[in-house]
């Protein structure tokens, strides 16, 4: 799809109520494929490779305005949706709800807060300068990412080329994306009133228990904690994650 002068790749599965999924930094639309099964019949999963990620165009503007306008333009082709976002995608999800309320009927935010800077977040960005750029074998990347909490999340963007194995994204792009995500976004979080579900892993390094409680100042918001889960709580506790998502989308009473 060509949109706003850029190429975007996306996943489109199922029929019915549209659900837009927005991945985190280093992610891609493909990681949200399990959501189609979680949602089940009556829902249409639309997962977007956000700019700089996956098979979408690299380079350019990585401001929050750019990401949000991408999502808004994309949804204008499908109509109002329930919007799910993890990490970086969660910020874009609640910003989309605040700035384009006509496009968002329900909001699911996985493990990200209204504040993404110090001191609320101890490490807002990850220096990836030492990450391998290209390797001879896939196993070299597998070994490198094995020490991270959810290696599969990162390996989903690994591809084989004529030169060797590499990530789909540009490393400089990813640093720019991370830096632009650091900030205080309370106005956006509090700027919408649609039903919202905030998910937090008890071992999260991105969303503290105190900030999650503060985010309940937003009306029509439900907080669900996942004991023992980290930032990728959908991987750490997939059964409960699926159950909570199903219960929320069923409760939105979305009229087609």
TrEMBL record:
Residues 19-243 form the AB hydrolase-1 domain. Transmembrane segments: none annotated. One of its GO terms (molecular function) is hydrolase activity. Keywords: Hydrolase. This is Alpha/beta hydrolase.
């Amino acid at each position: 799809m060509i949109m706003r002068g850029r190429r975007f790749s996306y996943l489109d599965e199922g029929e019915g109520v549209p659900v837009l999924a927005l991945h985190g930094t280093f992610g891609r639309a493909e990681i949200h494929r399990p959501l189609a099964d979680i949602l089940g019949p009556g829902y249409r999963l639309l997962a977007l490779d956000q700019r700089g990620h996956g098979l979408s165009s690299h380079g350019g503007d990585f401001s929050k305005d750019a990401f949000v306008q991408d999502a808004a333009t994309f949804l204008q082709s499908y109509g109002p949706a329930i919007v799910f976002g993890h990490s970086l995608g969660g910020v874009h999800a609640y910003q989309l709800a605040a700035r384009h309320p006509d496009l968002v009927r329900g909001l699911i935010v996985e493990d990200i807060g209204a504040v993404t800077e110090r001191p609320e977040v101890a490490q807002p960005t990850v220096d990836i300068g030492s990450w391998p750029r290209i390797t001879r074998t896939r196993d070299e990347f597998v070994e490198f990412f094995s020490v991270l909490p959810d290696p599969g999340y990162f390996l989903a963007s690994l591809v084989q080329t004529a030169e060797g194995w590499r990530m789909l994204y540009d490393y400089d792009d990813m640093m720019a994306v991370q830096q632009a995500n650091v900030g205080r976004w309370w106005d956006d979080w509090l700027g919408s009133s649609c039903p919202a579900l905030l998910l937090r892993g008890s071992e999260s390094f991105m969303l503290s228990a105190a900030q999650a409680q503060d985010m309940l100042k937003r009306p029509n918001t439900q907080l669900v904690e996942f004991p023992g889960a980290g930032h990728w709580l959908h991987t750490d506790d997939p059964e409960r994650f699926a159950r909570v998502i199903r219960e929320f989308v069923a409760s939105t009473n979305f009229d087609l």
